[in-house]
């Protein structure tokens, strides 16, 4: 099966359920797919290219990073008002990657072309909990698959590992990969 409806490059995808897939694209859209039917269920448009998205299995919302330097929290289940529930603005460059925590429904991380990774609480969109620095070039990918470690990879050829401890100690690094 091929799911083809984006007009420009695909940038990210994530499962939202056993048969529901979300995809983001440089064509300024996020599409929700029913993979059993092979069809689009819904679509969200943006002002700039989307570079990354992540679906929370805990709170059932979606975060997306884009070329406008913002992270937006979407609730695809919403039938009232805007589907955008919050906007997180702190990065000074494109937001290239985002990922929800797998153990805390309120926490997520973002990586950017401003060379920083940030830890966010969805209840506090005005400012991140932490700015994690150390990269000398754009951050291109990140992972929080292991609840103990937040990782970022960049155009500087380095992988940085941050240890996650409550209350949010982010001081351990691995500098090369």
- Give the distance, in angstroms, between the N- and C-terminal Cα atoms: 36 Å
**Assembly annotation:** single chain
The residue fraction in helices comes out at: under 10%
The largest sheet is: 4 strands, antiparallel
Number of DSSP strand runs? 15
Protein structure class: mainly beta
* Largest sheet: spatial strand order: 1-2-3-4
Fold and architecture overview:
The chain is mainly beta and 177 residues long. 0% of the residues lie in helices and 47% in strands. It has strands at residues 10-15, 20-25, 29-34, 39-45, 50-55, 62-66, 70-74, 84-89, 95-100, 107-112, 117-121, 130-132, 139-143, 149-154, 159-163. Strands 1-2-3-4 form a four-stranded antiparallel β-sheet, with no helix packed on it. A four-stranded antiparallel β-sheet has the order 5-6-7-8, with no helix packed on it. A four-stranded antiparallel β-sheet has the order 9-10-11-12, with no helix packed on it. It is globular and about 45 Å long. Mean pLDDT is 89; it is low at 169-177.
Helix-strand layout with pairing:
Elements: E1 10-15, E2 20-25, E3 29-34, E4 39-45, E5 50-55, E6 62-66, E7 70-74, E8 84-89, E9 95-100, E10 107-112, E11 117-121, E12 130-132, E13 139-143, E14 149-154, E15 159-163
Antiparallel strand pairs: 1-2, 2-3, 3-4, 5-6, 6-7, 7-8, 9-10, 10-11, 11-12, 13-14, 14-15
Provide the descriptors you would attach to this structure in a database record.
177 residues, mainly beta, 4-stranded antiparallel sheet, disordered C terminus
């Amino acid at each position: 099966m091929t799911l083809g409806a984006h007009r420009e490059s695909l940038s990210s995808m994530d499962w939202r359920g056993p048969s529901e897939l979300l995809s983001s694209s440089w064509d300024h859209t996020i599409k929700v797919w029913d993979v059993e039917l092979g069809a689009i269920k819904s679509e969200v448009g943006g002002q700039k290219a989307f570079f990354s998205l992540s679906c929370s299995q805990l709170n059932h919302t979606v975060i997306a990073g884009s070329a406008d330097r913002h992270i937006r929290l979407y609730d695809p289940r919403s039938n009232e008002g805007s589907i955008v529930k919050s906007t997180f603005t702190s990065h000074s460059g494109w937001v290239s990657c985002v990922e929800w925590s797998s153990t805390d429904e309120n926490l997520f991380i973002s990586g950017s072309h401003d060379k920083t990774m940030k830890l966010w609480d969805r209840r506090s969109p005005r400012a991140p909990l932490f700015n994690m620095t150390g990269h000398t070039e754009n951050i291109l990918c990140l992972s929080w698959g292991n609840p103990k470690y937040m990782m970022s990879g960049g155009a500087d050829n380095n992988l940085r590992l941050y240890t996650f401890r409550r209350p949010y100690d982010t001081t351990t690094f691995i500098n090369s990969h």
